[in-house]
Design goal:
By secondary structure, this protein is mostly helical. The chain is 57% helix and 11% strand. InterPro entries: AlpA, Prophage_regulatory_activator.
């Protein structure tokens, strides 16, 4: 076995895992993830917003400044979060386009 073969297999396994997670998000059956259909709202932090949207931090903040992404909510002097419902709605709007 070549040294890079293990990395390649690990990368493929990670990609398969991410694809499975994305499919479960779309079907609304993801374990511990935001449900696709729910009246529940909660505050989520930046790393989760970035993971759910697939955006990088700078793109997210640029879209917020343009009014194209939900605004963050201050939860402390140095902490911000987003409404999970607003982020889910934004994702749904992108999928519907």
């Amino acid at each position: 076995m070549r040294p890079w073969q293990g990395c390649e297999e690990e990368t493929l396994n990670r990609a398969a895992s991410l694809l499975q997670e994305a499919l479960s998000l779309l079907s609304g059956s993801g374990p511990g993830l935001l449900p696709a259909v729910s009246d529940e709202d909660r505050l989520i932090r930046l790393p989760e917003v970035l993971r759910l949207t697939g955006m990088c931090r700078s793109a997210l903040y640029e879209q917020m400044s343009r009014g194209q992404f939900p605004r963050s909510v201050k939860i402390g002097p140095r902490a911000a979060s987003w409404s999970a419902r607003a982020v889910r709605s934004w994702i749904s709007d992108r999928i519907a386009e």
